[in-house]
Amino acid sequence: TDVFNKFKAGDGSFNKDITNEPRALLCLYNAAYLSIHGESELDEAISFARHHLESTSGNLEYPLSEQVKRNLEIPYARTLKRIDAPYYIAEYGQEQTCNPSVLELAKLNFNLLQCVHQRELKDFCRWGNDLYEEVELSYSRNRIVECYFWSYTVHYEQQYGHARIILAKVFVLTSMLDDTFDMHATLEEAEKLTEAIQRWALISLWQFCPIMSYLRDGLN
After folding, report:
1. Does residue 8 sit in helix, strand or coil?
2. pLDDT given for residue 12 in this prediction
3. What does each C-alpha distance from 150 to 9, 57, 144, 156 come to in angstroms?
């Protein structure tokens, strides 16, 4: 946290001069959210920066005004970078320092990767629908798209497509198990299922109920 001392005055409080630089203030605010528990100086930085950003946000010009508004709602360190990408692409296009070639490459990259994700989601939905038809679990929620989105937030890069799909399938199978525990299994069945999972006895899982044969194949 010593790096933040440059923003402080002699009495240890944050220097009010930084409030005249809203972009620097926003950087301080976002950087402070990388703190860990117990770093009181960064908590102080968040409070200081947030107070002054809120008081000046109405006087800022676009695109900085939108960045401040969005980060006050969700700090940059806690955002899903791929979801925020369209905002930053649009805002970068309005910056005085915008490089047209960089902007065009950013748009192409986003659109090409979006096509990859759309194709993956189409195939994944087909797999998921086949799974739900196979196991016939009327009590289980269809969370195919949601599970893919969870995986997408972990690995969005094109080269991680295989890992993305595997993780999404694990989420689907876990969701089915969760629904089996919460909405279908009796207490005795839930105890047996828990015991089998803890022992990782896939044969016992298969004997427990029909869904487990499909889950067994998915887990293997």
Report:
1. strand
2. 75
3. 44, 32, 10, 10
- Residue 76's alpha-carbon distances to 99, 115, 157, 192, in angstroms, are 23, 25, 19, 44
CA 140-171-220 angle, to 5 degrees, is 100
CATH number of 2-79: 1.50.10.130
CB contact set of 165 (below 8 Å; sequence gap of 6+) = 120, 124, 151
Write down the residue that tokens 């803890």 correspond to: 198
Using CA atoms, how far apart are residues 131 and 114, in angstroms rounded to an integer? 25
Q: CATH 1.50.10.130 residue ranges in the chain?
A: 2-79
Dump pLDDT digits (tens) for 50-84: 999 999 988 999 899 999 999 999 999 999 988 99
What pLDDT is attached to residue 10? 75
Is the distance from CB of 179 to CB of 141 less than 8 angstroms? yes
Q: How confident is the model at residue 190 (pLDDT cuts 50, 70, 90)?
A: confident
For CA atoms 168, 171, 176, 179, the dihedral sign is: negative
> What's the pTM value of the predicted model, to 2 decimals?
0.74
pLDDT reading at 98 higher than 80: yes
pLDDT at 192: 78
Residue 12 corresponds to which tokens in the numbers above?
Answer: 């240890």
Span between the terminal Cα atoms of the chain, in Å: 46
Rg of the chain over Cα atoms, rounded to whole angstroms, equals: 24
